[in-house]
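help with this:

***
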Amino acid sequence: MYTNKTVRGDRNREIKSIEHLSLRLYLPHLVKFLAHFLKVRTELELMNIRSRNPSDDQAIAELNRQVFGRDNEAQLVESIRHSDRYIPELELVAELNYAIVGHILFSYIDLVGQETLQVLGLAPMAVQPEFQRRGIGSALVQVGLEAASSLGESMVIVLGHPQFYSRFGFEPSVSYGIESPFPVPEEVFMVLPLNNYQEQYTGKVVYPRMALK
């Protein structure tokens, strides 16, 4: 004969059995997630972001070729370095275990309106495929933006993924009266005003000829 106490006991055992099964199914995924999280955290703690040295140039070129699958970006970087658009403090590398795993470059481009003003263009930015989605690209962008702001720059312009760059405050350039030189969707051509931004920074972006190759 079953009593209410017996029924409750059976139900409790059922619930515990289901909870135990759920834990067994979920635990491997939790362990995998935690292992990935700790690995990424450790990598970021060990990573060093610094300015580029001339001895890095070959590794930087190889990284850009590997990421983009062509020579264009590596050649662009080299051309910018030998121009008056180059800013040594704004070419950065991410180094892990003494190997370069990421690279970013900010250089001067023109904003042509009632007057021609110099602003920063962010391009290229590359992270080795096996190290992507681990926060290295975000760290490069953040450090680069802080360096640009400390140098007194006014604005950064980028052509890229809105989901990525919006987290740093980038917005569509049309919001600031800035026109892209390319026929691209408005949301992918973005700007980020820095501390020295002023309202006269409007017009059409013009990239140096070397950047259009």
In short: DSSP finds five helices and nine strands in the chain. The two ends are 87 Å apart (CA to CA). The CA atoms of residues 72 and 213 lie 7 Å apart.
